[in-house]
Amino acid sequence: MENYVQFSKEKYLLDSPPEKLRRELEEELKLSGSDLRSHGWYHGPVPREVSETLVLRNGDFLIRDCLTNAGDYVLTCRWNHEALHFKITKVLIKSSESRVQYLLEQESFDSVPALVCFYMSQRRPVSLQSSAQIYCPINRTLPLRYLEATFALANGRKGSAHSPSNQRGAYIKRRSVTMTDGLTTEKIIPHSPSTLHHKEAMRNCALSMDQIQEFRCPLSPVGEAPLSPAYSSVTKHRNTMGVKVLEVVPSSPVLRRSSEPQLSPSSSTNAPLQEPASGDHPPTVHGYLSDAAGGSYCELHPTPSPSPAPPPKSYVERLRVEEGRTAHPGKEDGSEPFTAPLVETVSSFNPSKYHSALMGAENKPLEMGILKRVKELLGEADAKTAAKHITKADCTVARILGVTKEMQKMMGVGSGLELLTLPHGHQLRLDLLERFYTMSIMVAVDLLGCTGSTEERASLLHKTIQLAAELKSGLGNMFGFAAVMRALELPQISRLQQTWSALRQRHTEGAILYEKKLKPFMKNMNDGKESCALSSTSFPHIIPLLSLLEKGMVVIEGAEPWESTETGVDVVMSHLEAARTIAHHGGIYCTNAETKLQGFQEREDLLEVFCTEFQMRLLWGSRGAEGSQAERYDKFDKVLTALSNKLEPPVKHSEL
Question: In this protein, which residues make up the domain named SH2 (predicted)?
C-alpha cells in the first residue's frame, strides 16, 4: 500500500512544478492546427458547472468533452447573461471512404476547429432558438493532462478514453488516475473478515496525495478578459485524520457523496468550511458553489468525509440515489407514472375501411377509370412536387412526422425510427416493408401502363429518374428513393431495350445520371459502404435493416447483399451500426423533414395517390387487398411481366 502511494500517478501529475506545466502547455499549443489539443479554447474534461464559471461575458466560449457521450463535445458559451451548452455530435459517414462529421444544430463540419472557425468568422448564431454568437475564446492556462487528472480525481473516475488528450501515440501519453485500471476493490481484494478494512484503505489511497504545492500559473489565456477566471492556484491541506481527500461540496449536504471533492472560491480561507445559515448561501449552479466572485475552479479544499452510506441493494435503487430520485417517482415529484409501451399486432393499413375521393367503396384491380385519373395526376405533377408528396406520406407512416404525445407514450419512444429497432416495433417494420414494395409496384405500373410510342415511354422513364434524384438529393428521403430505384431495376422494366435506348438518345443526361450516380449509390447503400450526411437526411435508408429483422416474415425476392460468403458479416455489421445511429438521431431526422417540407402546399388528390391503402386498393382491388402478402406479390409479378411483354414482345429463338 505504501508503494502504491509512493508511485501514485495522480500524485506525479498534481505535484508538477509550475515551470513544467507551462512548458507542457506550450508544447500542446505548438501541435498541428488540425489537432484539437493545439487550440487554447479546448478545455478537455471540464465539468459543466465549472465551464459556466469561465464564460463571463456575452460571446465568451470554450469547447469541452461531453462527459455523458464519449467522443462528443459541448460548446459552452454565454449569451444574454446566461450560460448555454450546445452538444457537438460526432457522426461517422460511410461512403467510398468513411469520414467523420461533427454536427451542431443543422450544420456539419469536418472537424471541431473548422466548426469554431466558421461560427467565429461568420458571426452566425450557433442556435436559431437562442441566437447565441461566439467571438471571444476562453483559453486554458494548464495542460490537458493536468486538467484530466484533476477532474478525474474530483469526480472519482478516470478520464475519457475518447478525449483527444488520451489519443494513442500522441505527444501527451495517457496517464490513469489510479494504478488499478478500473478494477473494483472486489476484484482486487479477496473476500475475508477484513475486507471492509481493505476496501476503505484502498479508497483512501486512491484519493490521496502527499502534497500539492501552492502556486500561481504565470500564463494568462490569449485574449482572456481580466475578470475571466483562470486555472490559478492549488493549495495543500490535510484533514484531521492525516489523509488528504479532495471533496466537492454541493449547495446541500443531502446531495453530496463521500467521493466528491469540494470546490470553493479562491477568496476562501483554509479554515474548515461550515454550512452557511439559511438565506446566506452563495449563488449556486446546479448544486455547486458558484465562482462568480472571482474564484478559480482549480482551487480545491478538503473537508472531512462523512462515513459512506451502505450501497443500495439493487441497480435501480442505485440509479435513483445517483439521480436524487425517491423510491416512488411520480407520486412525490408530480411526474407521470411509467406505463408499458403498447405492442401493436394489427397493421395500420386497413384497405377495406379506406374511404377515397378517387374510388368508390368497392373497385376491381387496375380499374381503368381510376388508373386513368391517377396517370393524369402524376402527369400534371413535376418531379419536385411528387417527391414532396411522397416524402410527406413516407414520414407520416414511419412516424417521423405527426407524432403526438399520446403516440410517443404508446410507443414508449419519441420516434418511429427508434421504435423500428426495438422488439415491439415488429408491426411497424412490416407496415414499412408493405409500403416500400407497394410503392415500387405502383411506379412500375405507371411506367408499363404507358402504351404510347417508345419516345413517350422514354420521356416518362426520364421523369421517373428525376423523381429518384429529387428524393435522394433534394429531400434526403432514402426510403422513397430506394422504392423508386427498385421499380427501375425490376426485370420487367430493365428488359425494355428499346425504351432505354431511346432514353440514351433523347435524354442523355438522365441516362448518365441513372447509370453513373444513382445506380452505384443505391448498390453502395445496400452493401453498407455509403450513407448520406445526417444533416441533410429526412428519412434514412432502413430497407436492409427491415429485411434483416423480418427475414422470413415477408416475401423478399432475390439474395440480399449479406448472403454473400465473402463480405456478408461486414455488411450485416454495417447495417446494425447504422441502426444505432438511426435510433439515436430520430429527432434530427424529424427536424430535417420539417425543414425540407416547410411551406409545402399539399394537394389532397395527389397525396392520396401516394397513400399505401389507396395503392393497395388500386393494384389488387377492394377484395384482393385483404389477401395474403405472398399471393398479392406473386400475382402482380405476373401482371407486370404480361404488361412488359406487351410493350416489347420477347424475341423468339427461331428469329435469332
Answer: 41-138
| CATH pick for 19-151 out of 3.30.565.10, 3.40.1280.10, 3.30.505.10, 3.40.50.300 | 3.30.505.10
Summarised one tens digit per residue, pLDDT across range 362-409 is 899 999 999 999 999 999 999 999 999 999 999 999 999 999 999 999
Q: 347 is written with which cell numbers?
A: 397493421
CA dist., res. 158 & res. 178, Å (int): 8
Cα gap 448→643, rounded to integer Å: 6
- Encode pLDDT of 398-424 as tens digits: 999 999 999 999 999 999 999 999 999
Predicted confidence band of residue 518 (pLDDT cuts 50, 70, 90)? very high
- CA–CA separation, 629 and 555 (whole Å): 7
Q: Which three cell numbers stand for residue 168?
A: 494513442
| Whether the Cβ atoms of residue 414 and residue 540 lie closer than 8 Å to each other | no
Q: For the domain covering 368-647, report its CATH number.
A: 1.10.840.10
pLDDT: which is higher, 261 or 83: 83
Order of strands, sheet of 107-109, starting from the edge strand that comes earlier in the sequence: 107-109, 99-104, 82-93, 73-79, 60-65, 136-137
Its pTM stands at 0.57
* Integer Cα distance of 619 and 636 in angstroms: 8
Alpha helices in 362-450 (DSSP H): 368-380, 383-397, 405-411, 416-419, 426-448
Non-local (6+) Cβ contacts of 567 within 8 A are: 527, 561
Distance (Å, rounded) from C-alpha 37 to C-alpha 163?
10
pLDDT (mean) for 290-303: 41
104, 88 contact by CB (below 8 A) = yes
User: Three-class SS string for 290-308?
Assistant: CCCCCCCCCCECCCCCCCC
CA pair distance 112, 75, nearest whole angstrom: 10
Residues 163, 630: Cα–Cα separation, whole Å: 52
pLDDT at 322 over 50: yes
Domains 19-151 and 368-647 share a fold: no
- What string of DSSP letters covers 608-644? HHT-HHHHHHHHHHHHHTTS-HHHHHHHHHHHHHHHH
Q: Radius of gyration (Cα) for the chain, nearest Å?
A: 32
Instruction: Give residue limits of the domains in the chain.
Output: 19-151, 368-647
Short-list 531, 530, 539, 387, CA closest to 463: 387
Confidence band, pLDDT 50/70/90 cuts, at residue 317: low
End-to-end CA distance of the chain: give it in Å, rounded: 91
Backbone region of residue 59 per phi and psi (left: phi > 0; alpha: psi in -120 to 50; beta: other values) = left
Distance, in Å, from the CA atom of 456 to the CA atom of 79, rounded to the nearest integer, reads: 60
Nearest to 344 by CA among 447, 431, 451, 436: 431
Q: What is the mean pLDDT of residues 490-495?
A: 94
* Phi and psi torsions of 556, nearest 5°: -120, 120
Nearest to 264 by CA among 238, 304, 292, 240: 292
